[in-house]
Amino acid sequence: MAEVINMPRLSDTMEEGTVATWLKQVGDKVEEGDILAEIETDKATMEFESFYEGTLLHIGVQEGETTEVDKLLAIIGEEGEDISDLLNGNTSEVISNDSESEEKASNDSVEVPEGVIVVTMPRLSDTMEEGTVASWLKNVGDEVEEGDILAEIETDKATMEFESFNSGTLLHVGLQEGDSAKVDALLAVIGPAGTDVSGVVKNFKVNAPAKEEAPKAEKKVEALKAETKKEVVAANTVNTSSNERVFASPLAKKMAEEKGINLSQVNGSGENGRIVKRDIENFTPSTAATSSAPVAKFVATGQEDFDEIANSNMRKAIAKNLAKSKFTAPHYYLNVEFDMDNAIAFRTQYNSIPDTKISFNDMIVKACALALRQHPQVNSQWFDDRMRLNNHVHIGVAVAVPDGLVVPVVRFANEQSLPQIGAAVKDYARRARDKKLTLDEMEGSTFTISNLGMFGIESFTSIINQPNSAILSVGAIVQKPVVKDGHVVAGNTMKLTLACDHRTVDGATGAQFLQTLKGYIENPITMLV
Question: What pTM, to 2 d.p., does this model score?
Answer without folding.
Answer: 0.56
